[in-house]
Amino acid sequence: MTGRFRSAVFVAWAAYALALPDTSEAGFVVFSAGGDNTTASIQGTVDTFRTALGNPNNANTPGPLGTGRREINWDGGGATTASPVGTPFAGFQNIRGALFTTPGTGFLQTPLNAVELTGINPTYSGTFGFFSSQRIFTPLNSNVTDVTFSVPGTGGATPATVSGFGAVFTDVDLPSSTSLEFFGVNGASLFSMNVLPGSVSDASLSFLGAIANAGELISRVRITTGTTALGPNDNPSGGTDVVAVDDLLYSEPQAVPEPSSWILIALGLGTVIGFGRFRRTQA
Questions:
Q1: Which label site among 10, 164, 211, 229 has the fewest CB atoms less than 10 Å from its CB?
Q2: Mind spelling out the 3-state secondary structure of the chain?
Q3: Where are the domains of the chain?
Q4: When comparing pLDDT for 13 and 86, which is higher?
């Protein structure tokens, strides 16, 4: 193998490796709070996280955009009715680049007094609270929600990653019942942390968010809410902790580079480098 060819192959491999997730040295800056049943109790932490993600809030603006963040608050401009949906739930995929799936049967966006929620368990109207008025979000028949990303405006056609993600939770009572886990583009776990419990027994609010500080790329987030799917009474002393989600916040989704594109670019760069060396040798 000639020196020029070895250089090209090395550059190609290095570029491809850089496109892979860092599975052993992942680092994240964490933003965490366990509050009471008032928005004010976690507002400061949420706002600090917003600033760290970056401005502006890009709302429904199509991408690709190089900066800013996206937010989902489930409230639909003040919606007062419940919205049951199936899985996958793509209602925010095109406009904000987030697709939701669950091993359960679907999801529910719901006010606290909606029959769709109280029909599952009548105590839930007092169990949960909200951060932004007035709907919360929960998987049905599961306590697991997976979020994947794409460039907003592409209808899911352009896969994307984010550098930071956070969520507001309501009624976290146990210290290890609720968590966020981030995964890289190859499916390796990059980050996992439990959500702090609230400081009151019902309708408390908690927040957990994390932002990569070493270039990690998050392609999937797993949200685990409580110890069980909705159904039983909340009974933390007996080990049953029912939890729901409110606002989600994440950095602007950025397109995932195709490994083949990286390799072609690197091979081209390697060829240029090799040709330059060859000319110098000839000279």
A1: 10
A2: CCHHHHHHHHHHHHHHHHCCCCCCCCCEEEEEEECCCCCHHHHHHHHHHHHHHCCCECCCCCCCCCCCEEEECCCCCCCCCCEEECCCECCCHHHHCEEEECCCCEEEEEECCCHHHHCCCCCHHHHCCCCCCCEEEEEECCCEEEEEEECCCCCCCCEEEECEEEEEEECCCCCCCCEEEEECCCCCEEEEEECCCCCCCCCCEEEEEEEECCCCCECEEEEECCCCCCCCCCEHHHCECCCEEEEEEEECCEECCCHHHHHHHHHHHHHHHHHHHHHHHHC
A3: 19-257
A4: 86
Asked whether residue 254 carries a pLDDT value surpassing 60, the answer given is yes
In 3D space, the residue among 101, 238, 94, 100 whose CA is nearest the CA of residue 174 turns out to be 238
Over residues 218-237, the mean pLDDT reads: 98
Residue 178's nearest CA partner among 250, 240, 131 is 240
| Per-residue pLDDT tens digits for 136-146 | 999 999 999 99
Length of the chain: 283
- The 10s digit of each residue's pLDDT in 165-209 is 999 999 999 999 999 999 999 999 999 999 999 999 999 999 999
CA angle 45, 50, 52 (to 5 degrees): 95
